[in-house]
Amino acid sequence: MATHADYSVKAMLQELVAEIEDGLERVNEAVKRGELTLDGAKVKVKRLAAQKAPADLKDARRELYRGYQRVQFPDLIMAVDAETHFSAEILGMPAQNETELLHLYAGHASFSISGQLTLEEEFWRLRADMAFMRRSSRNSAWKS
Question: What is the pTM of this model?
Answer without folding.
Answer: 0.37
